[in-house]
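Reopening this ticket.

The earlier resolution said the output was attached, but the attachment link was broken on my side. Pasting everything inline this time so it's all in one place.
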Amino acid sequence: MYLRFPLVCLGLSTALLMTGGCSPGDKHPQASLEERTAAFEKSLDAIKDPQLKDAVADLGGSLLLLERARIKLDGKPVDTEYGTDELAQLKHYPNSQALSDTYINGLFVVRKNSSSDYLTDLEPIFPFSQNNESDFPFPHALEWQSVTLSNKQVVPFQAEWSETDSGIQLSPSSANLSNPDDLTITYPYIDGVETSNIQQPQPVTLHGEAEVIAPGKVVNLTLTSKDVGKTRTEGNISVTLLALGKNFAEVDINNSAPLAEAVRDTELNPLIIQARDATGQYLARAGSIDENAEQLAFYQQQLAEMLKQTAWSDEFSKKLDDEQKAFDSQHPHHYSKVYFNGPIENVDISVLDFSTANVTRKTLDLPVVRLDKNVVGKDIQTLPLSVVVYDDQAVNYLKDATLDPEHLKKSVVISQSVDDASAATLEFSHPPTFNDELLGELPDSADTPVTFFAEDQNGKRGEPLELPAEAFDADPKTGVITYDLNLFPETPAYAIGSMPLYVADIAKHTLDVAHLPKGLELKGNALVVDQALFPSDAWRFYAKDDTGNYLKEVLAVSHSEEPNGPAIFDVHYFYGHPTQIESYARTALEPVEYGFEAKLEKVPEVTPPR
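Inline output:
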């Protein structure tokens, strides 16, 4: 069973290369990474045994990669970037077991609309994001086993599609990289026989097994620079803040109690380190190093032993495993050095205590729900869900409903591309906000004046260039100015002009579900929105329950009277039962003139071949 871990480390986090080279004979600790890489590759080339070579390449190659990461982290500018609280979801539930139950009981499966007569895609919907490992912080596993079709046939799950299997197959989808958890049912193609998808046996139930490991308790501590070097103990958990730099925290923890017997053979990461700056906001992580000096020396020793071998053997493999187990038992502490994008004020340390643990396993028999994003007809599909999940990012996202024009202008970034001399570009962009969502269709009449200038003899801005109309094109809707350098009398050095930006005026209203206006109707956990009265290009809706927290939206479905016809109403499904609806409506569109002066990049000169 495949386990997703709450914090995925980059292999070992850093090791041998910090202490002097890729082999025990390399005595050049100051040698550059490139020199050490070359030395390692030379050592690797000398190994003849394939298994030994693979093992050395695995460890040595990882260490080289990790050393590169360490150098990059140490040299990274301290630019502030905010993230979210990795344990926010846990704070909504009475204990860790309740969060585990929510994950398992909130799973369901949607059949996706397919244009193929020989493929049907299934999308598992998770209550917590699968793209963000920290959104669900406990070790968990999900194993699909089979699907039952409408003709009662049971099709087993297989890890990949087989070209030689002539039957119906269930395998991971290979076409959808944005949803790696999607599954595909593949029907056999019979030459000369026309079979539409609706004639194929349809998926009814997806079967599998889920497992979640919940820690018996979670210990939370908030530390500052005053705590460096001190050990804080809470029960069997001891936490030491070893160092606190401008943008990194170095922490060591120890659990004096042994792991629960049920999880002793499971790889677990019990430590979650977060940081906040002076504003109190959580800083985004930049990376981590999770091996201390003793561990580094141990891995160096193991690699040295590998390099002394002439061939791989089961005995040698067992020896390495035994050494690893012995080292782990003698060094129970857990170390981590985490880098953040921004200056640190406080460090929040959370320790997942697995000395007691609840391992929840559940057999899944999930009905396949048909909920296309575009539905023809007025029948509303019910989607009863037994769990409540909150959207902790909504508060931060919605604060930009009202956007200050000056703040917008300060956030603009100008990107240039001169790779294609006939289509060089200046692109104006800014971090996306909630206000952007409600801009709607931008006007066609916006003016984008721009003048190009040559460079004078002193390297300053020279005279404006006389250009034909077709030499450049400014598109205010995309925020891109495209220009053809082949039509310029000389190479431009500067561009001065104005790019129109827009800010939406947004009106916010709070509505009690017992007194919703005409055009809004709540059916269970589904909000039905009449598109004639509340068109989606100008309106957004968020739901809260009695706790005052925003509910996570599961899916949004648009209903029309005919294929490809205009929407007559939208349906928004939530994890939970709303008691309050917040509406956000665009009332006007305000132009914001962004004046700019950009020094232009030059097309790189290409040296002709001799």
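Reporter confirms the inline version is readable. Helices lie at 33-45, 50-75, 96-105, 293-308, 314-330, 394-398, 405-410, 434-437. The longest strand covers residues 346-370.
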